[in-house]
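Q: Sequence in, structure out?
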Amino acid sequence: MTDVAAREVLVAACEEAGLDAQDAQLMRAHSNAVWLLPSSHAVVRIGRKQHRGLRFEAGLALTRWLAERDIPVTEPLMDHAIEINDATVTVWRYYPQSADRGEPPMRDLGAILRRLHALPRPPLELHPYPPLSGLTTILGSEAAHRVLDPDDRAWLDDRAAELLDRYERLESVLGVDFIHGDPYPGNCLWDGDERVVLGDWDEASIGPRELDLIPSCHDHLRFGAPEDDLVQFFRAYGLALEEFRTWPAFDVLISMRDLHTLTGYIRRAAADDHAAARELHRRLGMLRDPNTSAKPWHGM
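A: Exactly. Output:
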């Protein structure tokens, strides 16, 4: 979805919800478009109906269920989603963040995940985690043909198939149950001076709990997050980092995360986002050449 299309959806959704979109500011445009409405102290998230994670409507019910159990989650401002054309819109409380303070520490995320994984399964319809579904879907689309040459598409197809085969044969040490699905540090927000909340529950599903620990490892491996932060994350979760790195699932899930991150860049590159196209091809080159894969990736 282009920024122009997302704004059109935003305006229509705000009219339906009785919110003022005149001062709307685009905060993020990746898998979802995220807009800030300063005068309403609200954040509007625009996603696609074909999203294969948790349905957006169910995501609202899930966050309410988690909040009732004292899990620190972002607060929805509406009890239902708004459907506009092929998009689904949800409205959330805005949590102002200080640039001077930076992201919440990884250890806070580790503590939240430890509590999350100790909960019983929510009384909602949660689907099995769909590994690499976004990537495998987009690889067959016109968008991928526009921005990837045949050799890169073939490599991605083969690599995804290999990893999916290995994923299906994994034995989880932590167990298969309710997971967040995408709990990377960027999904954590400060709520006041001390409390940290976890947002973006669209990927909530049933899967190996190891999946929830991989994004922080990936943040260290590919984006240069400090090793000590990762150690503190695992300490808060209740597991030794060095032990986790030796588990058979680690290499498979890290490699899957590598490919998972490409999906949004393919979509944005196809919408003529030149910076996204450069980063997409940079990451592909690094993944295909092990001698360069240790260089830090760039976030968008």
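The longest strand covers residues 42-48.
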